[in-house]
Each structure stands twice: as structure tokens, then as C-alpha cells.
Amino acid sequence: MSIQTNQTSRRQDWASFIVRAIVLSLFFLIPCQPVKALDERIVFDPYTGLSLGGYDPVAYFVSGAAVPGLADYEETYGDTYWHFATEGNAAAFRAAPAVYIPGFGGYALAAVARGVAQPGNPTLFAINRNRLYLFASEAERQSFLADPDAMIAAAAARWPDVLKLLAY
User: Fold this and answer.
1) Residues in a beta bridge with 133
2) How far apart are CA 134 and CA 163, in angstroms?
3) pLDDT beneath 50: ranges in the chain
4) How does DSSP classify residue 73?
5) How far apart are CA 133 and CA 125, in angstroms?
6) Is 47:17 a contact under the CB 8 Å cutoff?
7) Which helix (H) or strand (E) holds 144?
8) Distance between CA 120 and CA 100 in Å, rounded?
């Protein structure tokens, strides 16, 4: 049995204080690595990290429609989350994600053509030459359908400027 004196107790408290102070100072001295941001070149919900509002990117090609995906079939690509309606669609995406990611990262094609980074609406879409494009309005979609090559060329010309507007 050991008897602890006030002096011993104070030494232990002091030693504990020193150790805590060293650990705390190391916390502030060690350079922190920035947290990897979600890929802002692909439109995503900033609260969930979900791309295309949860719609299945493969279904646009398979079904010709905006089909809601399921959390059961979730993939991560480009630091964002993608949902799929079926495991087969998720597998197709895993095999070739660049085929299914919307052109210009899901930003509205007509807006990009004007030099603006406006998210596209996943229910307003068109596929041209095996590439999915999103739009902010039905009028923009109709304008695209009238002359797709002109709008794609205009967007491609402005895309480098739009990328500068996006945070990394």
C-alpha cells in the first residue's frame, strides 16, 4: 500500500499538465492537409455529394429517360456519388464512366455556351453522338435540338473560361 502525499499529487498533476500541453501544441504545429473537395467540375448536391440529383446516368442511354437511381446501387467517381436503378447499370458505369458522365460535367449546355456555370436539370436532357447533355430550361433544350453542333461548339469554346469560375 502506498501513501500519496500532496507533493506527489502535485507533481503528477504538473506532469499531466506538461504532457497535455505538449500534445496540444503539436496539434497546432503539425501542418494540416486540406480536405479533398468534391469534384466541382461535375455538378453535385453540396449536401449529399450526389450527382445528377440521384438519377441513373446509364438509364438515359438504356431507357431514354431520367430514371431515379437507388442508394442500393451507389458508386463513387470524380469524388461524387452516383446512384443507379440496377446493378447492371452500375456495372456499365464502373466499366466506362466517361461514357455516361454528362457533357461539361452536367452544367447546362446553353449556359456554358454563354460562359456561365449553371447546373443542368437532370430531367431536361438530350443525347447527341452518344453524349448526354443537360439543360436549364425546355427552351434551351429545344434550341439545342435545332442546331446541336453549334451549341456544342460554342460551349466547348467557353468551357476553359467556365472552368476558371469553378473552385478546385
Assistant:
1) 126
2) 17
3) 17, 19, 21-39
4) E
5) 6
6) no
7) helix 138-146
8) 15
Judge contact between 117 and 133, C-beta under 8 A.
no
Q: What is the pLDDT of residue 78?
A: 83
Cα–Cα distance measured from residue 62 to residue 24, given in angstroms and rounded to the nearest whole number: 56
pLDDT at residue 166, rounded to an integer? 84
Contacts of 167 (CB under 8 A, 6+ apart): 37, 40
Which grid cell sits at 121?
436539370
What's the maximum distance between 2 C-alpha atoms anywhere in the chain? 93
Sign of CA dihedral 14, 20, 26, 28: negative
Place of cell 435545332: 146
Q: Where are the domains of the chain?
A: 39-99, 102-168
Task: Enter the C-alpha cell of residue 60.
Answer: 438515359
pLDDT at residue 165, rounded to an integer: 86
Segments of 90-148 assigned E as strands: 121-128, 131-135
Please give the grid coordinates belonging to residue 152: 456544342
- Residue among 73, 61, 164, 63 at smallest CA distance from 103: 61
Note the pLDDT of residue 24: 39
